[in-house]
Amino acid sequence: MQQHVGLIKNFTSEGTIEKRRFATFGAAEGKVKRAGIGDPILGTTAVMGTDGADQRVDVCMDNIREIVFGGTVEFGDPLTSDAQGRAIKAEPAAGVNVPIAGRAMSAGVLGVIGHVHLNPSVMQG
Length: 125
Fold this sequence. Notes:
- By secondary structure, this protein is mainly β.
- It folds into two domains: about 10-60, no CATH class; about 65-125, no CATH class.
- About 0% of the residues lie in helices and about 45% in strands.
- It is built from no helices and ten strands.
- The protein has strands spanning about 10-15, 20-25, 30-35, 45, 55-60, 65-70, 80, 85-90, 95-105, 115-125.
- Strand 7 and strand 8 form a beta hairpin.
């Protein structure tokens, strides 16, 4: 049986991006960096990240992927990035737009490796 690995694209890092973290667009074409608060989410790093700039890194851009949780997450929560690229529940204030990566496919707490169904979009509070 053939396994579908999904859409995975290789980029060059602009700095450290740990494994199983959200990635965002870098300053130049073909570059990515670890996502932070309010950054649009491109995808997740897989089982390997980078420990510095100018290193090659795979970014998973679809499917259900592993991600490190940055706080308490419930199954089905919309997920966005904290300052360390970890998944947290998106809870925008009224009238505020927040980039989301998709929905949690498992529940967990800070430091747990959970799952996200990647479907990047924007959520308005």
